[in-house]
Design a protein that fits this description.
The protein is α/β, with parallel strands linked by helices and 207 residues long. The protein has one domain: P-loop containing nucleotide triphosphate hydrolases (Rossmann fold). The chain is built from seven helices and seven strands, in the order βαβααβββαβααβα. It has a five-stranded parallel beta sheet with strand order 2-5-1-6-7, with helices on one face.
Length: 207
Amino acid sequence: MADILVVGIAGGTASGKTTLTRQLASRLGKDVTVIEHDSYYRAYHELSFEERTKLNYDHPDIYETELLVEHLTALRRGETVEVPVYDYSIYDRSDKTVTVAPAPVVVVEGILILADAALREQMDIKIFVDAEADVRILRRALRDGRERGRSLESVAAQYLATVKPMHEAFVEPSKRYADIIVPSGGAGNPDMALDMLVGLIDARSRA
């Protein structure tokens, strides 16, 4: 049985989850492995490209969360796992995987990781990154245009059709399960929050 600490980092779209995750990984160094919930989008090979673009990618059912739970359980047993690779350009899971080995700290990041009870049970520390809606939509528009080739019109349409209602239905309510809420978007002191999280993780790792 591998002695690992699982840290969950949740929050709305473009809330700053990835930034916090990268900062934590940088501070913790080689002792951390990061797994993104988005890697576990279900495969829809049987659907056409147009059909896949119309799926609701902000609903909990779009994720193969049960596989992520299996992988975290395997990592705790000291086993390596094959994490799927999702291809945003084709709206589908690719045929590639990434081999992930157990590490002292495993960070799981995603908008809906606190919305699933079985996944929450795998986490030793649960964090929610909180940001105002206007900050998140601006960040998402910039990110999706720059990194995923999406137009502003498509980002806005998706936000209004699925992102906003799913955030209100699933993401925001999951905040109540967090052990720590980290403010983002200019609120609070991000460096102080990061120092606190690193200290907590270090203490829990040595406990």
